[in-house]
């Protein structure tokens, strides 16, 4: 590390003060003497297009995704970042068809778990809330690991000093105004990130050798790494991530929070814009890993989390190194503050608001206090777990697979009026009971168990593709796509897929949760009135949110869709 460039301690402190000082100033400008509980969680549900699209883009272009994309490029070659960025972008795109239905039945909700409480009851709510607490803590930890690696590599400060400083900075500005602080600072952060990527990637590429590098460095690659259609990359990176993206789209509270915050008629426009921004940026940043692979660079200390800062320290001049530093700090802050506000909203709405006080008796001031205490506890836990320096890519794939157990029961609960609380809960628990031993190879999958796992995985392929088709094209297309995918995959996948436990674990979770949920639902003759969800969810704080909406970027909060229709009803007649 002695031959790598570093920023001086004074320069790092100056950049920290500049970045977090501006973020804190924005937060203080929009904070209120009496903070509105609903505004603290979702900004009042009427945020405009520009802020919403920027926030969704910045939240998902996080430091961990940058590092994971570069890791994928380093491990699998050019196809690695393509798989990572393309399927991650698809995840954002999948939100809007399901999102419009969710907002139709629960226009003033704050969390998906809160809606599950209204739809089913406490057990379903706590399963979804619990999985999101785990997911957000892991996400927060991943971002702090990325930040710590950056500080350790590019400055005289240590990894531990870096994660503490970043955690404190993010907490400082997010604590005051909650979600509104998160989305408004996201706008500033995404401008820095996109601008930095456009400049930094070409500079590193040409400094490392330019186009000639693909010839001079080709001997560093294995045949699989040289193959754009690498089966190694597909089965170890692409396929597991395809399975994971649907779970992230449905189960992740940081996404759901922005879904409940954006104006209903702007959902499609917002998430399509974020899809393009995310995909282009993450594929671009992943090329740093590909460049490192061709250049024959080994990560410092054998830790792939060091790869991106190492490339910057090797090839960038001091001015661009400072710009790179701000880019990474901005990307990790944009998601870390989203994780904090997601955790705060879960504890505020699902734990305190619904299960402790009860919706009718919940005190809005107490809710805000609970949210702030949650943020302090969460950042402390994130700093503690970040000390383990786990592999970021492994963490992301694990969380996505874990959420796979929830996807079908959650989606079915918004469309099928026969799904019961028992069907939801038993399906999720059953899927987890199968997922964990397959994912972590606790059982020997040779012989009959391997065949059984492959059959379930094959059904899981049909479920994943069928649900994607359902979101965009409806039930008939879903059944056709799911059926064809299952039949077409069976000859190849049965007897083969159990060799890839990461992929198999995710697919069996989808399959088992779907089979169990459908089986138990068909036994029941109950019918649910979806209109009850709107009655059972809504604002906790009656204070007028108009001012907060304008501050959050929605100066025309009551304007109809351009053709005068209700876009939600038009999409789901």
Automatic annotation (TrEMBL):
Residues 562-573 have a biased composition (Basic and acidic residues). The keyword Plastid does not apply. One of its GO terms (biological process) is sodium ion transport. It holds the Pfam family SSF. InterPro entries: Na/Glc_symporter_sf (IPR038377), Na/solute_symporter (IPR001734), Sodium:Solute_Symporter (IPR050277). The chain crosses the membrane at residues 6-26, 47-70, 82-99, 126-151, 157-179, 191-214, 234-251, 271-295, 315-333, 369-386, 392-415, 422-440, 446-470, 477-497, 503-524. Residues 539-573 are annotated as: Disordered. It is found in: Cell membrane. It catalyses: L-proline(in) + Na(+)(in) = L-proline(out) + Na(+)(out). GO terms for molecular function: symporter activity. It is a multi-pass membrane protein. GO terms for cellular component: plasma membrane. Keywords: Cell membrane, Ion transport, Membrane, Sodium, Sodium transport, Symport, Transmembrane, Transmembrane helix, Transport. Belongs to the sodium:solute symporter (SSF) (TC 2.A.21) family. This is Na+/proline symporter. It comes from Stackebrandtia endophytica.
């Amino acid at each position: 590390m002695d031959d790598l460039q570093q920023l001086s301690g004074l320069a790092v402190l100056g950049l920290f003060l500049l970045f977090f000082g501006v973020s804190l100033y924005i937060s203080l400008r929009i904070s209120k003497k009496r903070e509105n509980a609903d505004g603290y969680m979702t900004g009042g549900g009427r945020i405009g297009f520009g802020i919403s699209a920027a926030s969704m883009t910045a939240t998902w272009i996080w430091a961990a995704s940058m590092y994971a994309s570069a890791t994928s490029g380093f491990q699998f070659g050019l196809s690695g970042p393509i798989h990572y960025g393309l399927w991650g972008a698809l995840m954002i795109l999948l939100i809007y068809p399901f999102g419009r239905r969710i907002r139709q039945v629960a226009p003033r909700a704050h969390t998906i778990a809160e809606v599950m409480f209204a739809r089913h009851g406490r057990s379903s709510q706590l399963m979804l809330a619990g999985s999101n607490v785990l997911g957000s803590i892991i996400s927060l930890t991943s971002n702090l690991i990325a930040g710590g690696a950056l500080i350790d590599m590019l400055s005289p400060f240590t990894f531990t000093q870096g994660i503490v400083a970043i955690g404190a900075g993010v907490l400082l500005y997010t604590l005051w105004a909650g979600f509104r602080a998160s989305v408004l600072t996201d706008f500033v952060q995404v401008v820095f990130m996109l601008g930095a990527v456009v400049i930094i990637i070409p500079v590193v590429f040409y400094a490392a050798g330019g186009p000639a590098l693909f010839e001079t460095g080709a001997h560093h690659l294995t045949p699989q790494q040289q193959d754009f259609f690498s089966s190694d990359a597909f089965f170890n990176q692409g396929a597991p991530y395809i399975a994971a993206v649907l779970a992230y789209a449905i189960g992740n509270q940081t996404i759901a929070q922005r879904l409940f915050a954006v104006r209903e008629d702007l959902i499609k426009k917002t998430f399509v814009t974020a899809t393009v921004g995310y995909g282009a940026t993450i594929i671009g940043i992943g090329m740093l890993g590909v460049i490192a692979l061709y250049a024959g660079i080994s990560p410092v200390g054998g830790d792939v989390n060091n790869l991106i800062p190492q490339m910057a320290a090797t090839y960038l001049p001091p001015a661009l190194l400072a710009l790179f530093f701000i880019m990474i700090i901005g990307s990790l802050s944009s998601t870390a503050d989203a994780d904090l506000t997601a955790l705060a909203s879960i504890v505020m709405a699902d734990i305190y608001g619904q299960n402790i006080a009860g919706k009718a008796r919940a005190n809005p001031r107490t809710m805000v206090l609970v949210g702030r205490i949650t943020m302090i506890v969460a950042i402390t836990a994130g700093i503690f777990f970040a000390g383990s320096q786990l592999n970021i890519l492994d963490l992301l794939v694990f969380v996505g697979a874990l959420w796979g157990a929830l996807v079908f029961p959650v989606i079915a609960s918004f469309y099928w009026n026969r799904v019961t609380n028992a069907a939801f809960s038993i399906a999720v628990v059953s899927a987890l009971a199968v997922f964990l031993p397959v994912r972590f190879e606790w059982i020997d999958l040779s012989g009959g168990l391997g065949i059984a796992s492959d059959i379930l995985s094959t059904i899981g392929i049909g479920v994943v593709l069928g649900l994607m088709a359902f979101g965009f094209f409806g039930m008939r297309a879903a059944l056709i796509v799911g059926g064809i995918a299952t039949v077409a995959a069976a000859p190849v996948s049965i007897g083969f897929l159990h060799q890839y436990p990461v992929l198999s674990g995710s697919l069996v979770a989808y399959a088992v949760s779907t089979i169990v949920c459908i089986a138990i639902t068909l036994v029941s003759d109950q019918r649910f009135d979806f209109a009850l969800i709107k009655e059972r969810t809504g604002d906790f704080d009656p204070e007028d949110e108009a001012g907060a909406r304008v501050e959050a970027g929605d100066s025309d909060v009551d304007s109809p869709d351009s053709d005068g229709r209700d876009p939600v009803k038009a999409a789901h007649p």
